[in-house]
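Lecture notes, continued. The same structure-token format from the folding unit now serves as the input rather than the output. Read the line below as a description of shape only.
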């Protein structure tokens, strides 16, 4: 690939996770438990390399680099680093470093830990490439790589049926959305002529004013909504909890589920701020927020509770992006960073609890604070941020969200109500996870609970502390992360000055109301859980069950269609094949007005008339032959007649090839026919023969008309001149036909030889078949038919 504008640091940052993934199994076998520390160097180095770009990014600059990929289609392997991409990349690599270390402790005794490291690092590299990609096709490649690698991670414990189902469901939903996204990208490329995010962002209103805005909008949203689990596509995310906890912590904090949100933030300056955008996104987002948070309170498994709060958080982000005002986008950015920190930490807390107490069921837990004090502190830090309590980054986000929605019209009032209810439910869910397992008495069913190794509690503790430090040092936090990210999402420079110090205003009052409501929900969580479970049981059917029904329906339809199309009868297959060929010949010629004009009969010499007569006699012999063996021999007459014409027209080498092909065809077919017991003649009635005869005539006419239309076109001597000019100069051969076959079309000729060899092997298998039972009389060779 020709280099366009390479940035060594960016290229190395993209490559490091994949290099580490390739080395992971080897390092695990050599270094054992220390492999995690060695492998964590890769994402940590990538984090450091991206951090070096912050001075340029915070100044409003953009760093572009990449390589030519498919120049003929204007596709480049190109990347751009701006405020949005850099913050995402830092979250991916920074949290990814902690996840690798966490995996080293959590899966220390797993026999396939090396394979797990490979999968998680490949996923990390895919996600990093996604957020840095500039070219649309490059972005799509990384988008699908995240779906594939997440499939491997979710189904890591592939011996369990639930893990396999969760992996297939995630792949089917997100992969289908990815195909829709590809269609949207193709529309953007073909209709608007925009090939990269840089061009899209510089095009202004080009997409919004395009007559194809609606299909582009729908297709892009399908990709974003399936990836970021918006209802009703959310079902894959809770079922992805079948993956090991490090996967859940990583997918739900800064990576896979945020890919759709990233896409919406990235395209908002080009696709947003329309009536469609500000209606559809807030509608789906608010419904996802409230229902996801309600299902989180209903759940009893810590990981499932956190999974549904992730669904709710993603709904909140989509809702804010849909509102599209500057304050709403700033709120989305602040909440996205805060969510990455506290949710990654809480998922690691869930794994630590499971590792130390051997259960994740909230009703079976309690009193763990004395036995797991570090995990308890980490859980509290993350829960305080998730609950929006100062001084944590979650507080900054919640205040800005309410500030963005404090308008008096019905639209904003409805969204504000959804935000308050959703945040209150998530407040309750956060402390259900962070308090209930740790306070109270230790159940008798839990034996010897213990704190995990440093690699297990280090990650959640670091993320919890960062959530605190980000708010305390808010000026630095805004300068390095939130301001560049928000400016890129808005498409214009912006300022963020919100701090951890409360201000007595409407947003703060609403924040306090949210906390009070959250405490009420926390205290009444058992009653809410029972009521919600009753409603869901009464409804019965849901998207998750609908997915299973859709898959079963797809299998039934596949079986039905296959049994109809693949009937097992060769005559049906041949009939359909010939009909398709006839349609392919006639339809383009008729629709394209390419039917040939009536040709004039050429003046033939007497010996040429003799050859034509021989060919006609051969055709007649084939038609009236009493058995198929005679028909096969008669069929060779056509090929011999063609070979004679080649010889008369001055092409002896081509004529010789034709003679050889026809001779071998007749001999091989005759040999095969003598080994098969077939009826000696076609005993079908005339009404069954006529359709086949019509198809044969139509096929012959189609090929004849097609060849006539070709020869009536003006001859283009470009290829002939090329071969004549270079056959000797390059290939050192005087026989141009041989040079073409052996040199210019050498690979094609090799493929043809492979086909001939495969056919020969099939024929050998056929003639070795013994017909009839042992001791039965062998058939008469003269009566053999195809």
């Amino acid at each position: 690939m020709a280099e366009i504008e390479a940035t060594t640091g960016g290229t190395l940052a993209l490559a490091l996770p994949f290099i580490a993934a390739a080395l992971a199994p080897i390092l695990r076998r050599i270094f054992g438990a220390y492999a995690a520390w060695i492998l964590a160097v890769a994402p940590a180095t990538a984090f450091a390399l991206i951090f070096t770009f912050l001075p340029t990014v915070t100044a409003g600059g953009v760093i572009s680099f990449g390589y030519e990929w498919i120049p003929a289609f204007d596709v480049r392997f190109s990347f751009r680093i701006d405020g949005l991409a850099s913050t995402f990349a830092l979250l991916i690599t920074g949290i990814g470093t902690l996840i690798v270390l966490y995996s080293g402790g959590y899966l220390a005794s797993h026999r396939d830990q090396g394979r797990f490291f490979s999968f998680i690092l490949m996923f990390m590299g895919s996600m990093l490439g996604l957020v840095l990609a500039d070219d649309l096709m490059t972005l799509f490649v990384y988008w699908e790589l995240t779906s594939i690698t997440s499939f491997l991670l979710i189904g890591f414990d592939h011996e369990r049926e639930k893990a396999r189902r969760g992996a297939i469901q995630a792949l089917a939903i997100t992969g289908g959305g990815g195909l829709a996204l590809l269609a949207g990208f193709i529309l953007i490329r073909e209709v608007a002529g925009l090939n990269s995010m840089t061009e899209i962002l510089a095009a202004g209103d080009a997409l919004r004013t395009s007559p194809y805005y609606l299909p582009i909008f729908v297709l892009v949203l399908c990709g974003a909504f399936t990836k970021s689990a918006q209802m009703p596509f959310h079902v894959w995310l809770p079922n992805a909890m079948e993956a090991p906890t490090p996967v859940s912590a990583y997918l739900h904090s800064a990576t896979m589920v945020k890919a759709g949100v990233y896409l919406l933030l990235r395209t908002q300056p080009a696709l947003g701020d329309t009536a469609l955008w500000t209606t559809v996104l807030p509608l789906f987002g608010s419904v996802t927020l409230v229902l996801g948070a309600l299902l989180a309170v209903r759940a009893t498994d810590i990981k499932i509770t956190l999974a549904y709060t992730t669904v709710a958080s993603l709904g909140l982000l989509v809702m804010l992006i849909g509102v599209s005002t500057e304050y709403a986008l700033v709120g989305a950015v602040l909440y996205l960073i805060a969510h990455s920190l506290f949710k990654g930490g809480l998922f690691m807390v869930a794994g630590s609890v499971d590792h130390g107490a051997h259960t994740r069921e909230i009703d079976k837990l309690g009193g763990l604070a004395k036995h797991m004090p570090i995990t308890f502190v980490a859980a509290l830090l993350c829960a305080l941020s998730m609950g929006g309590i100062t001084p944590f980054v979650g507080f900054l986000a919640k205040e800005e969200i309410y500030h963005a929605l404090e308008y008096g019209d019905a639209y904003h009032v409805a969204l504000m109500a959804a935000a308050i209810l959703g945040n209150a439910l998530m407040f309750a869910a956060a402390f259900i996870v962070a308090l209930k397992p740790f306070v109270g008495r230790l159940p008798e069913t839990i034996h010897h609970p213990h704190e995990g190794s440093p690699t297990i509690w280090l990650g959640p503790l670091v993320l919890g502390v960062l959530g605190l430090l980000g708010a305390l040092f808010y000026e630095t936090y805004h300068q390095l992360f939130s301001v560049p990210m928000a400016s890129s999402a808005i498409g214009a420079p912006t300022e963020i000055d919100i701090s951890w110090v409360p201000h007595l205003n409407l947003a703060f009052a609403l924040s306090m109301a949210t906390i009070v409501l959250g405490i009420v929900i926390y205290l009444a969580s058992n009653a809410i859980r029972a009521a919600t479970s009753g409603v869901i049981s009464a409804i019965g059917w849901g998207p998750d069950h609908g997915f299973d029904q859709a898959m079963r329906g797809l299998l039934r339809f596949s079986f039905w269609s296959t049994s109809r199309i693949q009937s097992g009868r060769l005559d049906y297959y041949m009939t359909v094949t010939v009909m398709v060929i006839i349609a392919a010949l006639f339809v383009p010629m008729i629709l394209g007005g390419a039917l040939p004009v009536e040709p004039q009969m050429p003046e033939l010499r007497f010996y040429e008339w003799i050859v034509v007569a021989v060919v006609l006699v051969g055709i007649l012999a084939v038609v009236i032959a009493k058995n198929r063996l005679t028909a096969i021999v008669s069929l060779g007459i056509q090929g011999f007649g063609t070979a004679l014409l080649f010889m008369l027209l001055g092409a002896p080498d081509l004529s010789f090839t034709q003679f050889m092909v026809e001779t071998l065809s007749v001999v091989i077919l005759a040999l095969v026919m003598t080994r098969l017991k077939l009826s000696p003649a076609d005993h079908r009635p005339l009404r069954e023969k006529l359709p086949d005869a019509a198809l044969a005539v139509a096929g012959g006419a189609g090929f004849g008309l097609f060849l006539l239309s070709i020869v009536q076109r003006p001859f283009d001597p470009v290829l002939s001149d090329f071969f004549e000019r270079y056959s000797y100069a390059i290939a050192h051969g005087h026989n141009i036909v041989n040079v073409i076959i052996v040199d210019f079309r050498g690979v094609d000729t090799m493929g043809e030889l492979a086909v001939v060899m495969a056919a020969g092997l099939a024929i050998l298998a056929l003639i070795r078949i013994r017909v009839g039972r042992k001791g039965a009389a062998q058939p008469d060779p003269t009566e053999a038919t195809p």
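Point for the exam: Residues 716-770 form one domain.
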